[in-house]
Amino acid sequence: MLDEMMERREFLRKLGLTGAGILMGSPLARVLASGALEARTQSVPLRKFGRHDLMVPALGIGGHSLGLASDHEAAAMIDVALELGATFLDNAWDYHDGRAEERMGKLIETRRDRFFLMTKVCTHDAAGDYDMAMRMLEESLRRLRTDYLDLWQWHAVATLDQVKKGFAGKGVVDALFDAKKQGKVRFVGFTGHTHPDVLLAVLKEKAPFDASQIPISPIEANSDAFVRRVLPELIKQEIAPLAMKTLGGNFAPVREQMFSLDEGLQYAWSHPVSSIMSGVKSVQQLRQNAALAAAFQPMAPDQMLALEDRVIPATESDRFQPYRKWMSYRDGDSACMLA
Length: 339
Hints:
By secondary structure, the protein is of the alpha/beta class. The protein has 17 helices and ten strands.
């Protein structure tokens, strides 16, 4: 056990050093990392976006959760996001049967250029079909009332069969990179939360992806999965890691006092991630998370280890990681899942 703790401590130390460029990639990043935040009250700090000379907000807003808010609350959240600098917007073609993109598009139409806008393509039921992906892109652009995306991601890659089909000729991967060449998207990426082997299979292809969205939480780390296996490879390939499921995907770890809200976010930000996609459903929650982002101080490796150790019992139950589907990831297909 002592050897395992020493190994994990060294892993965290090296990972932090390897990913330091995410925080230290520009003079602005150095100012932010030193604690001298922007003049705006409670402003969300910026982090480097992978290998690119681009800074993005350390906190984003999940489009699925935005779609659950009332019309009035959703509009207020977008206004507050601009006020606080939480301008990284997440969405997906299939969220709420397209209504999530439609709502977001309506809310940002007159100020599109002030947001870093991301949505995802969901071709799993079409066997990774190129034409289907391109049709989905056009639908997303129409719904979001824009002529380009900042980031377009291959959504919820869940099986090795999907990876094989996605990289086959005229599959979804070709669609991603063709859309980038055409100027319809600035950056491309992929997401997943079923099994690390699936995302490692994507990374094995060494395609020049710009971003990847993965689960990062102290509970997840005990599974020897995405935090320990996928994140280091993303850093190695200079792909911007985007954190999701930082609170278990259903808030249960916080609700049942496995760890606190601020511990969950601080833990994720202490890894070399570019941003956290946060599933807030109200202005109050957004302001709370933005305040935590503005006040962020990295956890020491020993603190992170202690938190991981404290939540080991939660790893034994899918109740605290409901997004994980470990069965049949090696073959078969599945519909897009909430990510």
